[in-house]
Design brief:
The chain is mostly helical. The protein has helices at 10-29, 42-45, 56-74, 76-85, 87-102, 111-121, 125-153, 158-182, 189-221, 227-230, and strands at residues 33-35, 52-54.
């Protein structure tokens, strides 16, 4: 008996590749703290200093966008499988980082470059664990909330569904990661509050317009070519 599998759509193929790349690069980008420009002043409203955020948030916001777009185009089950498959590049990138960091540098490598890459690739087991746990739970939560709201609203209010799912999932992501990685190492209250506020603001501002763009691109990719275009 021969099993026939449905062909993979072009949008799902493209979005899956992009998703895997963002999973891998997020950890590298996270080594830099970036100012939010005018948005940094929001911290003073909550009695905090100027807000800053680790740059990996930009890759994670794109993960939120992609997983939500896949849920919109291909359904919740497919989006959840994408999140699950994302553990493969995430864990592989962590293992490779550990191996490369342990390998001796070439004798003629510039000392500044050698020290910089060792710092970028470095990390404690709590940071690695925090990243894995936060990724899995926050991305699954994002897909679940987005899909649940779609079940109530249908295909309407895409901007609202994506904003709510993005904000809540990023708040949970921050709570899990900061707690697992830094609890007991130093007081995490201000760091947790600052990161959560910054991520919530960025999620509310960036996720809705980006998901409209990604969904539109996905629909174009899946559009059947016209008869005239096939000749």
């Amino acid at each position: 008996m021969t099993t026939t599998f449905a062909p993979l759509s072009r949008s799902l193929f493209a979005l899956s590749i992009f998703y895997g790349g963002m999973v891998c690069i997020a950890g590298v980008l996270g080594n830099k703290q970036v100012s939010l420009g005018p948005l940094s002043a929001i911290g003073s409203v909550f009695g905090l200093g100027p807000l800053a955020v680790e740059a990996g948030i930009f890759a994670f916001l794109l993960l939120v966008v992609i997983s939500s777009a896949v849920a919109e185009l291909h359904g919740r089950d497919t989006a959840n499988r994408l999140v699950l498959l994302g553990f493969a590049p995430l864990v592989a990138s962590i293992i490779l980082s550990i191996i490369v960091r342990a390998l001796p540098a070439a004798p003629d490598m510039q000392p500044a470059n050698r020290d910089a890459i060792q710092l970028v690739l470095g990390g404690t087991w709590r940071i690695w664990l925090g990243g894995i746990v936060a990724y899995g739970i926050s991305q699954t939560l994002n897909v679940s909330i987005f899909s649940w709201l779609k079940g109530r609203e249908g295909s309407r209010l895409l901007w609202l569904r994506s904003a709510i799912a993005g904000v809540l999932s990023q708040a949970v992501d921050t709570l899990l990661f900061v707690t697992i990685a830094f609890w007991g190492v130093f007081p995490i209250g201000e760091l947790l509050a600052g990161q959560m506020i910054a991520k919530v603001v960025l999620s509310a501002l960036l996720v809705p317009p980006l998901i409209y763009a990604v969904v539109a691109i996905g629909r174009v990719l899946d559009r059947e070519p016209s008869a005239a275009g096939r000749h």
